[in-house]
Amino acid sequence: MVGPALSRRSSSVRRAVALVCALVTVLVLGACGEGLSPEFKDPVAAAPATDSPVTVTGAADVPPVLEYEAPLTVTHDRSQVVWPGVGEVLTDGDPVLLNMYAEDGRNRKIVQDTWVASPRLLRLDPADVGDQLYEALLGQRVGARLLVVSTEEDTLTEASGTMPLVLTVDVLPTRASGTPVTLAEGEPQVRTGKDGIPTVTVPEGDPPSELEVRTVVRGSGAQVEPGDLVTVRYVGVKWSDGEEFDSNWESGSVLTALFGLGTVVDGWEQGLLEHTAGSRVLLVVPPALAYGGTDSPLADETLVYVVDILDTRSAVAADNSSGEGTSAETEEG
Question: What's the pTM?
Answer without folding.
Answer: 0.82
